[in-house]
Structure formats: structure tokens, C-alpha cells
Records
---
Amino acid sequence: KQEVTQIPAALSVPEGENLVLNCSFTDSAIYNLQWFRQDPGKGLTSLLLIQSSQREQTSGRLNASLDKSSGRSTLYIAASQPGDSATYLCAVSPDSSYKLIFGSGTRLLVRP
Amino acid sequence: DTEVTQTPKHLVMGMTNKKSLKCEQHMGHRAMYWYKQKAKKPPELMFVYSYEKLSINESVPSRFSPECPNSSLLNLHLHALQPEDSALYLCASSLQGGELFFGEGSRLTVL
């Protein structure tokens, strides 16, 4: 059974720091992996989608990598800003069946 | 337009009430989803519709009744809910195997 883990559960950094959020999964046979951002009381915003055949995806200051063999993905945020403060969730799709398995998220606080 | 629109944003209902949550998307996505999210927890999948047919029902109690009237609309009918059903209800849509787009959610409180 696929399990997705995100460590740390919470992270506090000063503004301007580059940071890495981690996501690990137990079964390397995945279809794709998606990173989301969620602000308190709001819906999820899709940040990046990595297909199983891809190694990384980039959008602005965000870069997500995927290493299926080791069951890991990282989300790199460059030059963090207070507006980046949110909960970041990764989710794995085991196949094309529409199911997503979510990690518990990392709550990020970027201090001015 | 990469928007999923949910109404109402907030809903308070008694345990004997009947209400509905609504979701709309115009991205041409043929998969639509209902998720339930409790505080400080990840979303939990409830239902998936694919091409307007119910594809996945994650053993959700019958007091939650989904409906997909057409490819752009998704409803969740609520009846005889319990206080523990209070949560944020999220709608999402996608192409098959593609990126999920979520709405802002409907915050439900059951008294």
C-alpha cells in the first residue's frame, strides 16, 4: 500500500533563504506526483506536476525533482518570501485511476 | 480559465436539513472530484466522476449523495448529516491522469 510522508511537519525560515521541502513515498511505481500549496481555510493550488518519466519541473522560483528509484521528491523554493508562507502538500498518483495519495503536508512560515 | 468555482463558500445546517454544495468548471475536464478535509489533515477522496459517470465512491455514507448533471457541473447533496461531518469540502477537476485543479472549498458546519 502506497504511503506518502512529508518531513518536516513545520518549518520556519527567515526571508530570502533558499529551502527544500521533502516528500517520500513507499512504492516507486507511480504515475505522477503533484505539489500543492494551501493557504489557511482555502483550497489547494497546484504548483507543479511531474510525470513518472520526468526528473524535474520548474515554475518561477520553484523547482520540483523526482527520484522514483529512491521514492523521493523535493520542492526547492528559491529566495523565499513571506507570501510563500502556507502548507505545502505532495500527492502521488499510483496509476491513471484518478486517485491521489496525499502526504500530511509541511507548514512553512517565512519570517520578514 | 483554470478555475473551479464552488458555492456556497460557507454553509451552516442542522442535522435534519437538506442542502447542496455546487461546483462548476469550464476547462473541458471530464473528471470531477469531491474531497473532504478536516483541520490540519490532508484532503480525503470521497467521489470521482469520469465522463459524468460515478467512477469512485470511497465508501462514503449515504447521507452524502453526489450528482453530475453535465460535464461542467458537480453537486453534493447533503441530508441528515452529523456534527462530525463538519469540514471543508473541496471540488476538483482534471483531465485523466493530469493535473488536479481545486476550488476554494465550501466550509460546512453541522449543528
Note: Chain B touches chain A at residues 4, 6, 31, 33, 41-43, 45, 48, 50, 55-56, 88, 90, 92, 94, 96-105, 107 (CB under 8 Å).
---
Amino acid sequence: AQSVTQLGSHVSVSEGALVLLRCNYSSSVPPYLFWYVQYPNQGLQLLLKYTTGATLVKGINGFEAEFKKSETSFHLTKPSAHMSDAAEYFCAVSNAGGTSYGKLTFGQGTILTVHP
Amino acid sequence: ETGVTQSPTHLIKTRGQQVTLRCSSQSGHNTVSWYQQALGQGPQFIFQYYREEENGRGNFPPRFSGLQFPNYSSELNVNALELDDSALYLCASSSDRVLGNTEAFFGQGTRLTVV
């Protein structure tokens, strides 16, 4: 079984401030971890993913995330927020094996608001 | 633009009716997954199709069914619609079943309202 918990349904930051969106996961086998962004009335766009290897993953638009196995976390960060980052962000988990390798399990989402 | 096209974009149906949603996958992709995203929630996995065969199913009743065609496009059918079926339905296509090996590209979704 696999699950994702995103801490904080809403996060508000000022333009130029650090963005930190939290994600914890549960998986019975080694996970693949993903962050997606969703703009209003649109589908999901992949920001970054962790599969194996380097635990610090860099993605598009200046975002990065660090896989911490001991903490079962995969938090998303960006050093300096832009107005265009305002959107909803989803953390998701899939597995390399078992019965869930084709399935993404998503968290509830975090809405990021960026103030001028 | 992801190359994944869903139709229609919006749909209103009456409780008890049946609906068919369509997804055209990105060129070269042989895998299509369907997700239901209720308002204010994360997407929930419905099922995945790989080379015209169902390749995994989430916790959805049998009235949710699907099909994948030889060109890898796909349909999602929902029978006996209920009010709780109102949601955004997302289709994702990929070149591999194992999502760690590839990227799943999502369409813009079909917004289904059941009244």
C-alpha cells in the first residue's frame, strides 16, 4: 500500500521569499516520488521526480526536492517565489514493483499563493 | 501543450445516465491512465491500459469501465451516473507502464457535472 500526506492545504508567501511545500509518503517498497503543478482549469504538469540515485532532485522553474528515506519525506522548495508560481501543487508516489508500478497515488494538494 | 487531448471539455449529465469520455494519447505512447479529481482533492487512480489491456485498477466500482484502441487512444465509460461522480476526469499517457521510467503527460481533463 502507498499513501501521501501533504502538510498544509494552503501556503502563502511573498514574492522573492522561500517556498517550502511539505510531503510525506508511505510505501511498502522503494518509491518513485513526483511533484506536479496544476494551474486553474488545466491538467497536471510534472515539476520533478525521484527514482534512484541522487537524493536532491532539480526540476523545472527553479524547483527542487530532496528525498529523505529516514524521514519518509520529499519536500519541494524554491529559493525565491515568483507570482507565476501561484498554483496548486501535488505530491505523488508510485512504485518500482509490486502491484502499483503503473499507479500514481496523489496527496490532497497544496495551494500556493504568492503576494506582491 | 502535452499532446494529450481529451473530449469533451465539459459535460452535464443527469443522474442514472451513461457517459463516455475520450482521450487521444501522445504520439508514441502505448499506456493510458485515467484519474478522477473531485473538487478540492487530489486525483484518484481509476485504471490504466497498456497495449489495449487493463493493467491495474483503483478502488472504483464496475460501472466505471474503459477501453483502449489499437491506436492507443482510450475511452472511459461510466454507467448509472451518481451525483458523486461529478469531478474532473484526467487522462495521462506515457511510453511505459512503470511511471518511474518515463513521464506521464496529462490532458486538460473533462469536467463532468451530474445533476
Note: Chain B touches chain A through 29 residues (CB under 8 Å).
---
Amino acid sequence: AQSVTQPDIHITVSEGASLELRCNYSYGATPYLFWYVQSPGQGLQLLLKYFSGDTLVQGIKGFEAEFKRSQSSFNLRKPSVHWSDAAEYFCAVGDGNNDMRFGAGTRLTVKP
Amino acid sequence: KAGVTQTPRYLIKTRGQQVTLSCSPISGHRSVSWYQQTPGQGLQFLFEYFSETQRNKGNFPGRFSGRQFSNSRSEMNVSTLELGDSALYLCASSLGLAGGPTDTQYFGPGTRLTVL
């Protein structure tokens, strides 16, 4: 079965700085990859997803992620972080057959 | 289009009781998945229902059960509640099976269950 690792439990960045959240997956075939964001007390909102094609995926709120098969990674990036981006971010991998696995999450704090 | 709704939003129960949580998916979605989220264990998959059939089940005891109705609405039941069942229970709906090439899961706001 597939698995997901988010190596960073907590990241702090200054407002306006760039952001990269790491995600590594383990899966034998081409995975279906997702990034979700969860604000306090809320459910998860999809930021972006990768199924096939262009390995650089654009999402909502100015986020993007790059699928790197050689590194088994799907890191999330944003060039300039806003205070409203403070939240918890989850990477997830699907096997295309109703099995979804989520990472443990990375909590993002934004300093003014 | 209305999003995924979950009721109730908050619930307080005592050990040994049972509880039923409800999830209404986005109109037209046929798959409903349930997740348990706790600070210690993160987001853990409970089960997925598609067209009224359980298609996948996570590693949870039999006290956790669910069902899906013909209108795709789903309920989750936990019997003989334990303190460790305190968690945020999230429901997600998708057009087809979760994690698939055509599908994205849309999450509800969750039900916060506290077991005393």
C-alpha cells in the first residue's frame, strides 16, 4: 500500500517570504497526489492535485507543487506567504482504486 | 452547489454510550469517506461507501460502523464509546471512488466528538 511522509511537523516563515512544504510518497506505480489545507476548526480544502501530464501543478491561493518521480516527492510551494496561509497542510496519495493515505500534516505559522 | 454538510457539529457523550454522525455529500456525489482526526494519530481513514456498499475499510475496531443510503447520505455509528474516541470526524464526498484519477474528495467541516 502507498504511504506519505511529511518530514516537517511545524514550519515558521515570515510574511512575504517563500514557502516550501515537503512531501515524500511511497508507491510502486504512478500515484495520484493531492495537497489539502485545513484551517483551525475546519475541514480540509483541496489546494491542488496531480494525476498525470505536466509535473508542475498550479493550485488555488497561489500555490503550486512539483511532482518529481526520481525523488518520490511532491513538494508544495508558494513564492510569497500571506498571514492568512497559516494553517495545517496535508499531502495525500491515492492509488486510483479508492485507497487514499494522508501524511501527518505540517503546521505553518506565519510571522508578521 | 452546496458543500458537504455534517451534523451535528459538536457532540459530548460519556463512556459506554453510542453515537451516530451524519454526512450529506455534495449533490451527485456517490462516494462518501469517513476519517478520524486526532492530534496524536493525525488523519486516519475509517471507511468508504459507494452506491450504498462499503468499498474500503481502515484499521478500526468493529465498534465503528457506517452505512450509506440511496440518496448517498451516510451515517457513521460508534458503539460503546471510549475516551480515545474523542476526535474530529471528517466526512468527504467524491463523484467516484476516492483517490482515483477522476476524483477529488471534498471535505465537510467535521463533527467534534468529546467522550467524557
Note: The longest strand of chain B covers residues 42-50.
---
Amino acid sequence: NAGVTQTPKFRVLKTGQSMTLLCAQDMNHEYMYWYRQDPGMGLRLIHYSVGEGTTAKGEVPDGYNVSRLKKQNFLLGLESAAPSQTSVYFCASSYDGVDTQYFGPGTRLTVL
Amino acid sequence: GNSVTQMEGPVTLSEEAFLTINCTYTATGYPSLFWYVQYPGEGLQLLLKATKADDKGSNKGFEATYRKETTSFHLEKGSVQVSDSAVYFCALGTGGFKTIFGAGTRLFVKA
């Protein structure tokens, strides 16, 4: 039982490049989330999904897109990376909106 | 609106000292309350939770009691260890689609 996995673990991009972060969960959870964590800023919600085929904006959605084509996967895309997107990105899933969230190990992204 | 406020860190303690990390919340209805812990280089993981007033969550020697009258969910441990060094997040689940996280409190425990 792997829980929540994230790919890749580390990535360095140049300004303007694009990339996709993959999150996968094997707990059959309906809800999935993408957060970013920056020093002194805590966790900020980027986008979330309440089920397959649905997505919604969180607190800081600008510059990111997401897709939830399969229930177990939640993809986060950066179309044109900017240095301000240098951060650690965490994916999480939960059974419902009030239950425990299960987090992946994170992706450390640096944009030069 | 819904919000969580927790004490700013860092908190530095010697091994075997008593730990309190304060957390207060603002919410409508009857939220669930959580403490998550993040060890260096890892994602957050649930430490304990409470789903109704007066419930006490406990795990690994940590405890927190859901106090509706004071809207608080303070984290306590009687004797901390070096291995407890981490960042602790208080969080609120309100029945909407999201969990509200506090800003996190970093704990350093010295041997």
C-alpha cells in the first residue's frame, strides 16, 4: 500500500519551461489537493478536486493548471515556469473534505 | 470566515521538557480538529485528531483536547525527545471541500 506518491522528487527548470507534476493515490479517495510550501508561508492551496473529472481553484491558482482524468491521479502543470514558482509542492488526498489528509513526500522545484 | 491561529516558533526545548503549542480556531458549525507533523524532508502526516467537543486526541505521547468554550486545541507532551524535532501544524476541517492549516510551529529539542 503505497499511499500517496509524487513524481518527480526534484526538478530544476529554466524560466519559461513547462513541466507536469504527477500525484497518485491508491486509497480510492475522492478528494485530492495540490499545495505549495514556502519558508514562513505555511501551506497554500493551489488547486483541488472533489472527484474524477472535477477541479477547482484554491488560494494561489495563477500560473498552474490541473487535471483529474482518473480518480487515482491528479496532475499539476506549469505552462511557463517563473522563479516565483520555486517551492516545495505537496499533493494530498482524503476520503472527504473533513477527514484526515494523506500527504505525498513532496517535489522540490527550482526555477532559474 | 474559518481560520486557525497557532503560536509562532521556533520553540526550543531541552530533552524531557514539557511542550505546549497553542492553537485557537474560528469556525462555524462543528469542525474536526487536527494536528499534523512534518519531519525534515518529508510530507505532513497526521499526529492526532478530535471530531467533537471535549474529545481528546492522543498519539506517541502527544495529546490535545477539543475545547469548544475556548475554541482551542492546544498540543501537549509531557517529556519531549530529540526525535520530536519537527514542524507542527494545527488544522481545521469544516465540512467544506478544504482543510484550513495553521502557519506551523517549528520545534527544536536539544539533547
Note: The mean pLDDT of chain B is 94.
